[in-house]
Amino acid sequence: MSQAEIPDPILEVVHVSKSYGGVQAVKECTFGVARGSVTGLIGPNGAGKSTLINLASGFVKPDSGTIRFDGADIQGKPMHQVSRLGLMRTFQSPREWPGLTVMENMLLASPPRGRDALWRAYLQPGKLRQAEDVDRVRARELLRDFNLYDLRDELAGNLSGGQKRLLEFARIAFAQPQMVLLDEPQSGVNPVLADRMIEAILRLNADGITVLLIEHNLPFVERLCPRVVVMALGTSIAAGSMDELRADADVLDAYLGQVPVSV
After folding, report:
1. What is the pLDDT of residues 84-117, one digit of tens each?
2. Which residues, other chains included, contact 43 with Cβ-Cβ below 8 Å and sequence gap of 6+?
3. Residue 25: enclosing H or E segment and its boundaries?
4. Which member of 34, 40, 74, 80 lies 3.0 to 4.6 Å from 221 by CB, making a disulfide possible if both were Cys?
5. Under a CB-based contact definition with an 8 Å cutoff, are residues 36 and 247 in contact?
6. Collapsing DSSP states into helix, strand and coil, what is residue 233?
């Protein structure tokens, strides 16, 4: 699969491999994600999708290959450094601070803007309070956008699975990364909330956040992603629109017996 197919790639995975003992989870995987896009990453169980996300986000180091984000090599960098570069991720289960309110969860996701320097709290308390006031205004705006404003004083641990996922998306929007890796955003979410999840992801993308989406729900992927990358047996085997993938013999063979061939 040629990188020339990808205009202005923000994420490039080039011949990346990762083994665990005698099991090769990712093998010579290569694909790219265009800046500003919503791209899907699909494949049968055991294809290596989640391992690839762990590699790209810095949770796991690859054995070989290159992972390039916004022009910089990031393979092997720890997750906090990758996040600071502007590449964030979610997990299959939403993660929140359950003992804090929805608003408090939002404020913890605010960009530091220099406030991580302790001395500012002593020498510039006025500016610090002003920045916090701005954060609260922005947090309220985002909670309204993601239909969570009426729950702002509720403990995050009391939210439903769908509400927790929306809170996670609102926090991503607050943090303003360049790109986010969404690992099965429909997991643990009532299927009737699919439309709301789609609206939330498109809202992130409208804010300029590139999205790479892993999801087993193929109709959900098709509604969101003009371009989809397919993995099987640890490597990328095809890329294109869902219509194009339906006509690809390798894709049909990879999915045979695991999902309907009408994929």
Report:
1. 999 999 988 788 999 999 999 999 887 655 445 4
2. 49, 230, 231, 232, 254
3. strand 23-34
4. 40
5. no
6. coil
